[in-house]
Request: fold
Amino acid sequence: MKKKHLNFIGILLILLSITSVAKAEVSAETAYIFNTFSFLIHGILVMLMAAGFAMLEAGMVRTKNTAAICLKNIALYSIGGLMFYLIGYALMYPGEFNGILGIGDIFYDPLESEIAGEPNVEDGYSKPSDWFFQMVFAATAISIVSGAVAERVKVIPFLLFAAIMTAIIYPIYGSWTWGGGFLAEFGFSDFAGSTIVHSVGGWAALVGCLVIGARKGKYNQDGSVNALPGANLPLSTLGTFLLWFGWFGFNGGSQLALGSAADAAQMSIVYVNTNLAAAAGVMASIILAQIIYKKIDLTLALNGALAGLVAITAGPDVGSHFVAIVVGAIGGILSTLAIPLLDRFKIDDVVGAIPVHLVGGIWGTLAVAIFGGGSFIAQLYGIMMAGVLTVPLAFLAFCLLKYTVGLRVSETTEDSGVDMPELGLQAYPEFKH
Amino acid sequence: MKKKHLNFIGILLILLSITSVAKAEVSAETAYIFNTFSFLIHGILVMLMAAGFAMLEAGMVRTKNTAAICLKNIALYSIGGLMFYLIGYALMYPGEFNGILGIGDIFYDPLESEIAGEPNVEDGYSKPSDWFFQMVFAATAISIVSGAVAERVKVIPFLLFAAIMTAIIYPIYGSWTWGGGFLAEFGFSDFAGSTIVHSVGGWAALVGCLVIGARKGKYNQDGSVNALPGANLPLSTLGTFLLWFGWFGFNGGSQLALGSAADAAQMSIVYVNTNLAAAAGVMASIILAQIIYKKIDLTLALNGALAGLVAITAGPDVGSHFVAIVVGAIGGILSTLAIPLLDRFKIDDVVGAIPVHLVGGIWGTLAVAIFGGGSFIAQLYGIMMAGVLTVPLAFLAFCLLKYTVGLRVSETTEDSGVDMPELGLQAYPEFKH
Amino acid sequence: MKKKHLNFIGILLILLSITSVAKAEVSAETAYIFNTFSFLIHGILVMLMAAGFAMLEAGMVRTKNTAAICLKNIALYSIGGLMFYLIGYALMYPGEFNGILGIGDIFYDPLESEIAGEPNVEDGYSKPSDWFFQMVFAATAISIVSGAVAERVKVIPFLLFAAIMTAIIYPIYGSWTWGGGFLAEFGFSDFAGSTIVHSVGGWAALVGCLVIGARKGKYNQDGSVNALPGANLPLSTLGTFLLWFGWFGFNGGSQLALGSAADAAQMSIVYVNTNLAAAAGVMASIILAQIIYKKIDLTLALNGALAGLVAITAGPDVGSHFVAIVVGAIGGILSTLAIPLLDRFKIDDVVGAIPVHLVGGIWGTLAVAIFGGGSFIAQLYGIMMAGVLTVPLAFLAFCLLKYTVGLRVSETTEDSGVDMPELGLQAYPEFKH
Reply:
C-alpha cells in the first residue's frame, strides 16, 4: 500500500511537472498563431518596400520619366504576386505540391482545411501566411531591376521581364537554396537573401543595363560622365526610410518563427543588427564621400543605408552588434566605391542598384563566413551560382524582348521622356522644368 | 482496492488529457491578448489609410488646391475620431450602452475595470481596442468623399459634412449590419465593408458631386471633357501603396479575432486574397486601358488597385485565391469603364472615388453571393439599403450646408484655387506653375 | 484508507486547479514572446517617426535647403543608433552593465544566451528588443532639434551635436527618470516621454536657435516678421501622418509589456487616448487659427496634431478618453499661441519644434498631475530638471562647435541655400523656383 501510495505520488509529481511545463511553455496552437502572425506582419512590411523602391526611384529619375517609373513599380509588384501564384511558388518549393506538372499543381491555393477554419496546428503556421511572405520576396527581386534600367526601357517589355523574373529566374535560384536544393545541402547560408534576393536582382539589373545600354548623354566621347540628377530627392529620402522600415520585415520575418522565446530573442538580435548595419552604412558613405568628393552627398548616404541593409541580410542573426556595424560600414564603403567603377565601364545604373544590391549582396554573403564561422567555399559557391543562373537567363530574356517587341524607347521618346509617349501623361504637369 | 486504484488511474488520465489540452490550446488570456493586439495593429494600418487618401488626393488635384486637400484630410480624420467618440459608436452599437439617451450614454469610454488594469478576460478582447478599430473605419468612409468633391468645395462646410457622416450616416448603416440590425439578420454578408464603408462613402461622394456640380472648365458646351490633370503623380502612387498596405489592416483585422489557429489561418487567406485582388485590379486596368486608350494610364492603374481592393473587401475570406484574382480583375475593369460613364453625366469626381468605391463596392458585395454561395437577394438588399439610407441623408446634409453656410467657393476662388483665399498659403509656393 | 483516499482527491483537485490556471493564464514563455514582439513592432513604428520628421521638415524648409534637411535626418537617425550603442545606453541604464568603465562595459551587446538561442524566459523579454525600443527614443530626441535650426546650420557641426545629444544629454536625463534615478524616486511620472524625450529635445532646440540666431530676412528692424514659407506642404502633411502613425508605437510600446490581459487592455486605452488627443489638437488649432487669423492654417493644423500627441505622451494611460481630448486640445492651443510669442523674442524655429515639443511637453507633464492625481510638485521638479540639465549642456556643446568648427553657414551659403555648397546637389534640380 505504501508503495502504491508512493506510486501515486510519483505519478502526481510527473503530472505536476507536465502541468508546470504547460504553464511555462508555449502551446502548439499559440505558437501557430505567433508564427503565422509573424509571417503576415513581416510580410506587409516587405510589401511596403515596393512603395519604398517606387519613391526612391521616382526621386532619382528626371521629371519626364517619373510617371513611367511609378507605373512600373506598382505593376511589377502586381505581376510579381500573380506570377508567384501562377508558377513561381511551385518552382521554388516543389515539395509543397503533389502530382505531375499541371494546372492544379502549379497554381498555389490554400488547403481546404484552412479555408474551413480547421487548420492543422501541427503544421506550425498557416500555409498562406508563408506563401505571402515568400511572394513579397519575389517582388523585391524585380523591384531591384526597375530602377537600374529606368529612363530608356519601354514599359511593356520591362513588365514582361518582371513576369519572367518572378515566375522563373528568382524561383529557380530560390529552389536551390531556400527550397532545400543543392546549394542548401552544400552548406550555403543566406539568412534573408543577400544573395538569393539582392544579388539575383543585382545580376539581372547588370544584364539589363548592358543589353539596353546607357542613357543618351550620360557618357561623353572622351569617357567623362555627365550627371543626370534625380528630380525629387525628398521622395528618394522617403523611399530609403520606407525600405529601411520594411527591412525589419525582410530580415526579422526571415527568422521564420516567433513561437518560442528562442525565436523571439533571435528575432530581436536580427532587428538590432539590421538597424545598426544600416546606420553604419550611412555614416561610412558620408565619411567616404567627404574624403573623396569633399561633399556630403545625399544620394550616396541613402545608398549607403541600403548597402548596409543588403550586406547584413545574409547574416543578421550571427550575433554581435559590433560585427553588424562592421558589415554595414563595409557595405556602405563598397557601394560608394563601386559607382565610379561602373561609370568607367559605361554601365549606366540610374539609381545605383548594382552597387547596392549586387556588390552589397556579395559582400554580405561572404561576411557570414568571415564573421559567422560558416564555410567560405560554400558562400562563394552560392554567390557564383547566382550569377551562373541569373546572367544567362536574364540575358536570354532581355535579348528575346529586344529582338521581338523591342526593349528600348526611340531616341525621340528618350529625349521627350517616356511619360508622354507611353503613358500619355506627365508626373508634374504644372511644374515648369 | 484494485478498483479504486483503477479509478485513480482513470482520474489521472482525465487530468492528463486536460493538461495536454492546456498544452495544445490557447489560454483564454492569451487569446484576449492576441485579439486585442490584432485590433490595435490592424487599426493603425487603417489609420495610415488616412495618409494614403491624403497623398492620393494631393497628387490628383491641381497645385492651387493642394494645401486645402491636405488640410481636409487631416481634419476629417480628426473629426471622424471625435464624432465617433461623441455619437457614432453609440448609434452603431447601441447594445454596448445602457440607459436612456444622455451624455453619459453617448460618450464612449473605457470600462473602469480596464482602466484599473483588471480587464474581464471573458470579454475576449479589450473594448477600447475594438472601439479603435471601429473608429478608423468611420474615418475611412468620409475619406472617400473628400477627393470626389475636391477643388470647388468650401473647406468648413466639407468638414461639417464630415462630422455628419461619421456621427450619423455611417453609424446608422453600420448599426443595420455590423451592429446586428435587420440587414445582419436578413443574411447580408459584408466581411470588411465593400458596401458598409466603401459604397456608403461612394454614395455620399456621388451626392456631393451632384449637389456641388462639376469644376469650372471640366465639361464643354458640346459635351466634350477637358482633362484637369493632377499635379503630383508620385504622391498619388505613394498614396495608393499606403492604401494597399493599410488594407491588410482593413481586411485582415476584420477577421475580428486572432486567438485561435483557425482565426490565424483565415486571416492569412484574407491577406493573400486581398493582395491578389489588388494585383489583378492593377493588371486588368492596365490591359484594358491599353486596349481602349492605347496608353498605359498611371492613374487608371492606381485606381485599378483600389477597385480590386474594394471589390475583395466584402469576401476576402471566401477561400480560393483564383476567385480573389477574378473578383479583383473585374473590379479593376468596372472602375475603368465607369469613369467615362460618369463623364457622360457630367459627374465630376476628381479622384475617381465613385468608380472605385461605389462601383467596386457593389460588385464586391455581389461577388460574395456569386462565388461564396451566399444569398444574392440578401446582398442586393444590403446594397440597395446603403443607397436608400445614404442618398437622402447625404442630400439633405449637403443641401442644408449649401443653403446656409454655402457649399461651393466663389468663381474667383475656384479660378485662383482654394488654397490662398481659404488657407492663406500655397502648397508649393516656390515652384513656378 | 478513506482519509488517504480523500487526500488523493484533494491533491487531484489542487492539481486540477493548477491545470485550469494553466488554461486561463499566459505562460511565462508566451508572455516573453508578447513582450518582446511589442518592443520590436512598436520600436519600428517609432523608427518610422524619423521618416515623419524628415518629411515634415523637408516640406517646411525652402527648396534650396531641402536636400540638407533630408541628409541631416537620415544621418541623425544613424548617429543616434550608433551613439546609443557606443555610450548612451550604458549611461541611461547603468544597472544593466557590470564592472568599472571600460570598452567592454560601455558597448551594449546581446547576452550570450540570447545569441545561442537559449534566452532566460524569466527576464520577461529579450534584452535586444528593449534596447531597440530605447534606441529609437534617443533618435527621436535629436530629430526634434533638426527642424528648429534648419536653413542656416552647417551640416557636419549639427551631426556632431546629434552625437552629443544621443550619447550624453538625453541618456543622462533618461537615467534620472526611466533609468531609475532620483527623479523616478521623487515620484516624477512621464509615461512615454513628454518631458524625457520631447521637452529635452525642445530645450536643445531652443538653445540651438538662440546660439545660432535667426535666419537672414526672417525679422525686420522694426520687429515685424517675414514669412518664409515651406516649399512642399504635402510632404509636411505626410510627415505629420507618419509621426501620428509612429506615435502609436511611441506611446503604445511604452506600456513596456503585452504579456497579460491587463497590459493589453491598458495598451488599448493608450492607443485610443493618443489618437483622440491628436485629433483634438488638430481641431483646437484649426478653430483657434480661424478665430485669430481668420484662416484655417494647414501648418498650424499639422503642428496641432503633434502638440496634441506630445501633450498626451506623459499620461496616455490615465484613463478617461474625455480627459485625453482636453489634454490634446489644450496642447494644440498652447502650441498655436506660442508661435507668435517666439517671434516676439526673434527665436526663429523653422518648423515650430519649440511650441510643439517644449511647450506641449511641459503642458502634458503637468496634465498628469492635474488629471491623473499625481504629485504636481514632482512633475514640476522633473520639468525643471530637464531644463537645468539640457540648457547648459546644449549651450556648452553648441558654443564649443560654434567656436571651433563653426556652427552657422556663411551669408553667401545662406543666400544660395545650404544644398549646393555643402552637398553639391539640389533637391529639385529641374523645378524652376
Remarks:
- Chain C touches chain B through 75 residues (CB under 8 Å).
- The two ends of chain C are 99 Å apart (CA to CA).
- Residues 28-60 of chain C form the longest helix (33 residues).
- Residues 1-6, 16-22, 98-104 of chain C have pLDDT under 50 and may be disordered.
